[in-house]
Amino acid sequence: MKRLFMMLLLCFIFAKAADENSYYRVYRDAKLRMEIEKEFVTILKPQNPDDVKTGGYAKFRVTLLSNDKAVLKELETKMDIVRSIILDVISGFMAVELQSPQGRAKFANVATTSINAILTDGNVLGMAFGDFVIQP
To answer: In sequence order, which ranges of the chain are alpha helices (DSSP H)?
Structure first.
């Protein structure tokens, strides 16, 4: 029984490490970067729905990562929509979730998937945050 538990624990640890490595691989593999010029400042999802002040604020900068110049050109033309998508996605997260690297990675994955839904010329591989400040 002990051996089975240890084997399951090791499998979980290796799966978690592989998942994190695949997330960070995006930074290494992306050949093109597009920094969104204006920083984002927004209210986060409140812990208490009746009190908006419990949500806190997020201030951050985003760099989109891709391997295709056509995607970057399309992103330029759709920048207002891209900014709106990023703001919509982050407003669904609480400050507590975004304070951890895993929470920011989850936010980046959800936002990347949402942005890719509006693109026709290719895909964004991921996003990087040059600045990420949370005020709970």
So the answer is: 2-29, 69-77, 79-90, 95-98, 101-116
Hey, what are 107's tokens? 């936010």
| Assigned token pair, 31 | 């050949």
Residue 11 is inside which H or E element, if any? Answer: helix 2-29
Q: Each residue's pLDDT tens digit in the chain (136 positions)? A: 555 555 554 445 544 444 445 556 666 777 888 999 999 999 898 877 777 667 789 999 999 999 999 999 999 999 999 999 999 999 999 999 999 989 999 999 999 999 999 999 899 999 998 889 998 7
Q: Among 78, 71, 66, which Cα is nearest to 127's?
A: 66
Nearest to 109 by CA among 81, 97, 121: 97
